[in-house]
Batch of 4 targets.
Target 1
Amino acid sequence: MPKSKRSKIVSLTKVSKKTKEQKGAFMKDVQENADKWQYCWLFEVGNMRNAHLKTVRRLWKDSARIFFGRGAVMAKALGTTPEEEHRVGLHTLAKQIKGQVGLFFTDSPPEEVLAWFADFHQPDFARAGNKATRTVTLPAGPVMQEHTTPPEPFPHNEEPQLRKLGLRTSMKRGVPTLDMPHTVCEKGKVLTPEQTQLLKLVGIKMVMFKVGLRARWTAANGEVVRIEGHDVDVDTEGADADGEDSPGAEENEMSE
């Protein structure tokens, strides 16, 4: 029987497993940077977005090196016991590698690093699984796009999508219009895929990408210090809801 010429669906969400050679190269890279820099910071990410993490890497490209990959591989590279640690004290840092975390190598003074990350945050759209940070109600009248300045009404060709997402609209003078107010979400409740799509269409950002510093290793004396007051809200459910931005998804790219 001849093979079908019909187009086949290929999943783009599958990520090939790292080979032994790739893992070895990754570990060697981590160890070489542990030999190069004065400090190694362990950081966590709240509301992970690759685009924002790339921004951090770009802004620090001349004075730091970031690794964000599989925690187990990073921990192994540092060494999880006094006997296996690559440099004195690194096993203490390696034991704290849990969850969605990364390594930040730099020679910049600790005060400068703490101040920079305390100030850096990027708003973004929520994902399914995040909790609404506020109640959003669209008023009666034309449905407006808030990401434009000034806000503009949705074009007529987007009304089917708005109705699909739960809005009871009608066309008035060629503009999708609500006859009565519509509550998109309520503060504190978990957002559904339809709600997050609608919030994104309207232009309402509800989450904040932020990097929190957990601990710092100092090469000079091997001391590891826990960082207090720099925690972030790590919403892993929302971060991985659409299969993107998982810790190993861009391991090679983010460690360059």
Target 2
Amino acid sequence: MSTEPLNENGIALDANGMPIESWGGKFERKFKENPFVPVLAGLTTASLIIAGAKLRRRDSTSLNHWLRIRVLMQGLTIIAVVGGSWWYGQMKHQKEAAAAAENERVLERAGFEARLRAAEEADRLEKLEQEVQTRMAAQSNSSKGGWFGGLLGRGSSGGASGSSTSTGNGSTA
């Protein structure tokens, strides 16, 4: 029985949380990343096998020809490995840069939405405050008279002197 932890899809994970690949799956993934390396390695192997067959027949000119082809194939394989690694690194760098740009765009969007919500909330509170002030002004204008609901007569309409004038309230002293 295997004791590797499984993810939600039932795939076995290693100690780092990465999925464990079979050798066939790994070959397929690597072949997709750089298809020239396995092809050239196969050609190198084929040229070596043909050179071995030529050695058994004691055909030295053909043997030398196939050994030179093997060296050429090995050189091309090394170039493919180095070039593929460089290319894969460039592509990985581009993907990381694109992911970072996307992440920055998402963070920028989230910040914008947060600022927008704060502005909308401030606008809503400002309108609510204006509505309350309008109602208070309307309520104070619609009251029966000045101070204490008309018990002390009409008060001044906001003057700083504090003097009150009686305007036909019918109150005589």
Target 3
Amino acid sequence: MIISNDPSWWPLISSNMFYSYWTVAAGVVLIYDWMLTLGQEVELIWRQRLSLMTVLYLVIRYIGVPYCVMIVLGNMPSVSLTDTVSNIINYARDGTNLVISSMLGVITIARLHAMYRKSTMMLVFLVIIWFAVTIACGVLAAIAFKHIVLDELMILSGTYMCDYVFDGDASF
């Protein structure tokens, strides 16, 4: 860990602060958009009969709020997170990415299946491709989880900066 007040680090601190401001601004825009469209969503989605597509839509939509909070907390240099909390946030964020990608894949398969006039051959092809991609992404994520550790590497002029550390004999 580096603890320093050296002015040579100030450009890095400045860029990290700038990035964190944009992250918070994006989170505010997400919540604002969610609040603006909530009335339409209740009318068009919640009052319908629940189907697989409706459930997938709602899960993808509402998983974005805690995901946004995780991203904001992980990127704010004024918030000190322990290494354990940083690792939990990292695992949750990467796991959420995998789950959302899988759900979007299911939605895409359903739409393409309908576009190809419900062709069974096309459905089988799309499902096989989806499984292959999802399994490959899951295996790569598991390998990365095994070797990546988040560590508080720097405390520079009162800001906290975590970064990835490759544990052991990891070569990527």
Target 4
Amino acid sequence: MGCSSSTAKAEGRKEKIRRPKSWKHPQPISRAELTQMREEFWDTSPHYGGKKEIWDALRAAAEEEDLSLAQTIIESAGVIVHNNDLTLCYDEKGSKYELPKYVLRDPSNLIRTK
């Protein structure tokens, strides 16, 4: 009875992660503003529920440029990836972890300074 959902979860974990599709902030945003938004999210994320260790693993994976290393971090932590862009994940006890795109990818209208 519960076997099919267990299989789906095991298969989901093996799915290769990817960066989210390009997105646009409502107005152009600077690197400093984006960094502040990200820091605020990660500072408050444990208050959304779930385990701090999983949030830490998700942050490490989100900030990792090398997707294969990010994949290893996710798998090592036992994170069950529902959306392969990491916007929706679960831990092994079923706690839900939702990540906004702004912590996973820069917006297309990021103000680039030289």
